[in-house]
Amino acid sequence: MVHLHGAATMTSRSRVRGAALQASLLTNSNTNMDPPPPNPLNLLSEDQLAEKVDMLLDWWHDKKQVLCITGAGLSTESGLADYRGHNGSYHRGHKPMIHDQFMGSEYQRKRYWGRGMVGWTNFFTAKPNKGHLALASLERNKKIGVTFDDQPEFYNSEQDDSWLFSSGQQQMAIITQNVDSLHRRAGSTHVTELHGRTDMLVCMSCGAKRERNDFHTELETSNREWLERAMNEAEMRPDGDAALPDDNNSYYKSLCIPPCQSCGEGFLKPSVVFFGDSVPSHRRARCSAAVDAADGLLVVGSSLAVYSSYRHVREAHQKGTPIAILNVGETRAELEQLNSVTKIEAPAGPTLQRIAQHFDTQNS
C-alpha cells in the first residue's frame, strides 16, 4: 500500500504547485501542465488490479461511516471527458466557462449555449458506469454513508420546507464535483452535488427554474441551420460542452437565445457553480458536517485541483481521518504531502465493482 508520509505543513514547493493547479483552471496555461497520465483501463493486469482491490479493502476494514468524494475521472467510463486525465480536455486546450464571463457578456452566453447545444445530447444520454453502480450498491449495503445532526445553516433559509419538516438527522454518502447526475441515475440516494446540476436552469432575474431538456428543444428549434453546420465541426467536452473550430464573435452572432418564460426578460443560467464562483455556504456547511462525522474519506476520480472539494479533504486530514484516493495521476493531496492519505493508482470502475462484489458476498 502506498502511503504519503510528509510534513503536515506544505513545503514551499508544494504550496506553489498547489496554487498553480488552482490558477490553471482560470488561465488554462497548458504549456505548464504535466503530461497526461496513462489510460486507466490499460494500466494494470488482472493480478495487479486484484492487489489494488485488496489495498482498498484493507483501508476499509473496521470503518463504519465512510464518506465518498467523486470527480470527473469517475465518469470517463461513461464516455464523458474529464479535465486532467488520460484524454483530459485541458490537455487539448479546453477553456472552461468563467462565472463573470457568463454573467457579464452576451457573446459569452451565446458561445456557451451554442457549444452546449451541440454537446448536450451526448452528455445527457450518458449512462452510469460500473463505478457509479458500485457506489450505489455500497450505499445500499451501508458501506458508504454518514449520519449527522441537521442544522438550519444547511439550508438556503430557515423557511425551507426540508428544514421545517426535518427529522433532525442528515445523511450523506457521496459528495460529487460532477454535474452529470449519473450518481442519481445509478440509484445513489444521499448525494450532494457540490457544484450543482447542469440539467436544471435558473433565471438570473426572477429566479424561475426550467428543465434544460425543455430549453434545448426551444433552442434547437430557433437555431436549426446553425446547429446543422456546427454538428459537423464539433468535438465533445466535459459538462455538456463542445469545442467548435471558429471561436469568435461572428460564429455565434446569429444565434437566438430564448429568454426566461416566466418573466420574459431574464437570461437563464445552468444551476451550477461555474469556475470563479463559490459553492453556496449552506451546501458547504452540510458537506463539512458530513466530513466531521466520517471515520474514513474515499476520493474517487479527482485530482483535487479545485479547492471547493479539496477543502473537505483538508478538513478530514486536519481531524486525523484516514483518507483513501482512488485515482490515476497525481493529486493535490500528494503535492501538499498530506500524511493521512493512502493512494491507490487504479481504474475507478473495475476497482469499485470488485469492492462492491466483495461486500455483496459478505451480506449474502
UniProtKB/TrEMBL annotation:
Residue ranges annotated for the Deacetylase sirtuin-type domain, each copy included: 46-362
Keyword Disulfide bond: no
Keyword NAD: yes
Active-site residues annotated for this sequence: 195
Binding annotation for Zn(2+): 203, 206, 260, 263
Bilayer-crossing regions: none
Pfam families: SIR2
Keywords tagged on the record: Metal-binding, NAD, Transferase, Zinc
Protein name as it appears in the record: Lipoamidase sirtuin-4, mitochondrial
InterPro entries: DHS-like_NAD/FAD-binding_dom, NAD-dep_sirtuin_deacylases, Sirtuin, Sirtuin_cat_small_dom_sf, Ssirtuin_cat_dom
Highest taxon of the lineage: Eukaryota
GO molecular function (one): metal ion binding
